[in-house]
Amino acid sequence: EAQVTQNPRYLITVTGKKLTVTCSQNMNHEYMSWYRQDPGLGLRQIYYSMNVEVTDKGDVPEGYKVSRKEKRNFPLILESPSPNQTSLYFCASSWTGATEAFFGQGTRLTVV
Amino acid sequence: ILNVEQSPQSLHVQEGDSTNFTCSFPSSNFYALHWYRWETAKSPEALFVMTLNGDEKKKGRISATLNTKEGYSYLYIKGSQPEDSATYLCASNNAGNMLTFGGGTRLMVKP
């Protein structure tokens, strides 16, 4: 079954404790991206990657890092989480930025 | 940062009503316009991706049109059903690979 898998689904952490949210896709897609969703603001792109070892900043990259060492995986790293990074995060993959995106199940992160 | 706007923000309709929403986006350096359907507690799912001016796409009772010259797209739902209740998102891909989403239109269909 074609899917995008994010882990964990829910996470409560403390300010400053490094965390990684994993994202994996099994469709051999070249393009992967991370979004955060906040009430009243819609989905905002954090980072995207057009292929292995190629990553670019989206609209709201501050406080986040990503890596794309293999085509299927695109982890989101928060080196020093802060409460303003409390949000619902989605990973997505597609063939390009101009083709339909397949979204993961979402990760609800709370930073206290 | 691109400005992608959707209206209305929310909409309540009766079962059987037809309805439509608007998405406006920058027309310069346009590549593609996406529509997604997002049900509560689920992930967004793609409805349409359109690239050409004048494109019209249809999936069952849902259809969409695209005007790239003036920078707008309409999503139509014919004969709304309670299961159509969801947030409908549009997203624009301009001059590159960034995808910018609008704030969404939340549709509630009353039985």
Description:
- The complex is a heterodimer of chains A (112) and B (111).
- Chain A is mainly β and 112 residues long.
- Chain A contains no helices and 11 strands.
- Chain A has strands at 4-7, 10-13, 19-25, 31-38, 42-51, 54-57, 65-66, 76-78, 87-94, 102-103, 107-111.
- In chain A, the strands form 2 sheets. In chain A, strands 2, 4, 5, 6, 9, 10 and 11 form a 7-stranded mixed β-sheet that branches. In chain A, strands 1-3-8-7 form a 4-stranded antiparallel β-sheet, with no helix packed on it.
- In chain A, strand 5 (42-51) and strand 6 form a beta hairpin.
- The radius of gyration of chain A is 13 Å and the shape is globular.
- Chain B is mainly β and 111 residues long.
- Chain B contains no helices and 11 strands.
- Chain B has strands at 5-7, 10-14, 19-24, 30-38, 45-50, 56-59, 62-67, 72-77, 86-94, 99-101, 105-110.
- In chain B, strand 4 (30-38) and strand 5 form a beta hairpin.
- The radius of gyration of chain B is 13 Å and the shape is globular.
- Chain B starts with a strand and ends with a strand.
- The model of chain B has no long low-confidence stretch (mean pLDDT 93).
- Chains A and B meet through strand 4, strand 5 and strand 10 of A and strand 4, strand 5, strand 9 and strand 10 of B.
